[in-house]
Design goal:
This protein is mostly helical. It has a two-stranded antiparallel sheet. Helix 3 runs parallel beside helix 7 and helix 3 runs antiparallel to helix 8. The longest helix is centred in the C-terminal third of the chain and has 27 residues.
Length: 168
């Protein structure tokens, strides 16, 4: 298995797991916090997708599907269209009230399709390309893609745990 195939498979698992984790949840359940300062499932899913969309678009040199395909308008959230959820306060998180699981799943499909398209054109040599020089050492494409996967997987675990608490 080459790196492109492995990364594509890993991102497919993220999309599939997220789909299963969100099915059947309404807007109220998506916005419900399992604890006073805990992030709601809807916000966690939105954030996971926004970071993936943001980072893959940056690496690919393309516009994010969030804005390019009108997802920001469909969600109509009271946040800047560049927001990914990183560094949001408790009140800002509460303001990200996702209208439906179907909307999240549609955005997930769009983000996954863009990610798969990008990964499909990669070679192993591409993974050594520096994509962020603000760090020491500079971040390569390979490190960035694994970092996004790590973030996605952590948030998927949080979504599963939060949903379990809410349904208990």
């Amino acid at each position: 298995m080459d790196s492109r195939t492995l990364l594509t498979y890993a991102y497919e698992q993220v999309a599939a797991t997220l789909g299963g984790a969100l099915r059947g949840l309404d807007a109220d359940r998506l916005a419900q916090r399992p604890g006073p300062d805990a992030n709601p499932v809807g916000w966690l899913a939105w954030h996971l997708l926004r970071v993936q969309d943001d980072h893959v678009a940056d690496a690919a040199g393309t516009e994010q599907v969030w804005t390019a395909a009108g997802w920001a308008d469909r969600f109509a959230l009271p946040v800047d269209t560049a927001a990914t959820g990183y560094g949001m306060s408790r009140d800002e998180v509460a303001a990200v009230r996702v209208p439906s699981a179907d909307l999240l799943l549609g955005y997930s499909e769009a983000v996954h399709a863009r990610t798969a398209e990008f990964l499909g054109g990669l070679t192993d040599a591409d993974l050594d390309r520096v994509v962020d020089e603000r760090w020491d050492p500079p971040v390569t494409l390979g490190v960035r893609l694994v970092s996004v996967l790590s973030d996605d997987l952590q948030h998927l675990g949080q979504i599963g745990y939060a949903r379990g608490l809410l349904e208990a």
